[in-house]
């Protein structure tokens, strides 16, 4: 049976929102350090992440993958350029407004899970809404919990859960607020291949069934093969895209990057 479709959550800016674009950057630049220690992690990056699409971001070590994700998710600030969630420009927000956007419109799945050890699975999942003083939508919470297979584990603390179950808690936490975009930073890096495949399958299904937007940083061609689109970065810039990727096609493209690096 196909997962039940829930209506999309309302946009931040109503009629002013750019149709079809969940998040975008324009000339996004991020620089660390000054003088001899200056490093340009992102160099005038312009990208759009469409609603209801699963995008993987790949590239060699140091290409700017994680920096890009952290800037678009509002976890790091841009040196220059624009980052938008819908039509909301993150650079114009106060700290309080940015916190509200991250809480209500952005979900983030960390490789290391980032669960609070003293809280139960349910308390970890509803933590953001509890802090905000807004109860999570009960029907949606039950649906997400059932879909990720945690209904019989909600009373368990993280130490009582397997790695895969902890990652499912992290995914449920990211989805329960029904954010505009879910960002996933190497979400299967700490998991075995079978559990990783289950997690990736769930992320893909959340895009198909709920029109969720997912942006994932990964180094794994197999993980990228679950996405609708792969964006390749090198030296802080997008250098290629691939639609309908497969693990083999992604691996061939990454080998081409390695070969180009050796001959440069």
Report on this structure.
- This protein is an alpha/beta fold and 264 residues long.
- The chain has a domain at 20-105 and 183-190 and 211-264: P-loop containing nucleotide triphosphate hydrolases (Rossmann fold), CATH 3.40.50.300.
- The chain has nine helices and ten strands.
- The chain has helices at residues 65-72, 95-104, 121-125, 127-132, 138-147, 163-176, 193-210, 221-224, 247-263, and strands spanning 21-32, 39-50, 54-58, 80-85, 88-89, 106-109, 181-185, 214-217, 229-234, 237-243.
- The strands form two sheets. The protein has a six-stranded mixed β-sheet, sandwiched between helices.
- Helix 5 runs antiparallel to helix 6 (163-176) and helix 6 runs parallel beside helix 7.
- The longest helix is centred in the C-terminal third of the chain and has 18 residues, at 193-210.
- It starts with 20 loop residues before the first strand and ends with a helix.
């Amino acid at each position: 049976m196909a997962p039940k479709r829930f209506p999309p959550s309302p946009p931040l800016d109503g009629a002013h929102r750019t149709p079809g674009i969940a998040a975008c950057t324009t000339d996004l630049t991020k620089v660390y350090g000054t003088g001899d220690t200056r490093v340009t992690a992102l160099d005038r990056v312009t990208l759009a992440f469409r609603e209801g699409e699963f995008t993987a971001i790949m590239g060699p070590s140091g290409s700017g993958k994680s920096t890009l994700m952290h800037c678009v998710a509002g976890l790091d600030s841009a040196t220059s350029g624009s980052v938008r969630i819908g039509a909301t420009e993150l650079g114009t927000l106060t700290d309080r407004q940015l916190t509200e956007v991250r809480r209500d419109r952005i979900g983030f799945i960390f490789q290391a899970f980032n669960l609070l050890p003293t809280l139960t699975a349910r308390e970890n999942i509803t933590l953001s809404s509890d802090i905000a003083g807004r109860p999570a939508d009960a029907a949606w919470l039950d649906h997400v919990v059932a879909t990720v297979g945690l209904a019989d584990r909600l009373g368990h603390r993280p130490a009582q859960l397997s790695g895969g179950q902890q990652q499912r808690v992290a995914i449920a936490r990211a989805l329960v607020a029904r954010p505009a975009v879910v960002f996933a930073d190497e979400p299967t890096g700490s998991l075995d291949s079978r559990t990783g495949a289950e997690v990736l399958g769930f992320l893909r299904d959340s895009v198909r069934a709920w029109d969720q937007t997912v942006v994932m940083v990964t180094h794994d061609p197999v993980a990228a093969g679950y996405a609708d689109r792969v964006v390749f970065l090198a030296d802080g810039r997008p250098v290629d895209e691939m639609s309908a990727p497969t693990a083999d096609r992604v691996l061939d493209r990454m080998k081409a990057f390695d070969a180009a690096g050796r001959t440069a």
